[in-house]
Design brief:
87 residues; alpha+beta; 18% helix
Length: 87
């Protein structure tokens, strides 16, 4: 494996998983070793995210203000589609 691929293997990425435009539901996917920690931080969640369970959550910005609410699902690696932690 080359150095670029090896570096990417340790990154956590966020990506829009729904097409751009207007819609009733938007999906953002977090993948990588920090996905779980980032999700809990964004949701200000003190309790653990149960794997493969839909949790209602309020999403917060850096100042702690609620910016949206929705569902959070956690799929731990290596038993996720990508083999890494996915939220």
């Amino acid at each position: 494996m080359n150095d670029t691929l090896r570096a990417l293997d340790n990154d956590t990425i966020a990506a829009q998983a729904t097409p751009p435009g207007r819609g009733g539901v938007g999906i953002v996917r977090l993948s990588g070793p920090q996905a779980y920690t980032i999700a809990r931080t964004l949701c200000k969640r003190s309790l653990a995210l149960q794997p493969r369970y839909a949790h209602f959550a309020r999403f917060h910005d850096a100042e702690g203000q609620v910016i949206d609410e929705g569902l959070v699902l956690f799929f731990p690696g290596p038993n996720s589609f990508t083999g890494e932690d996915v939220v």
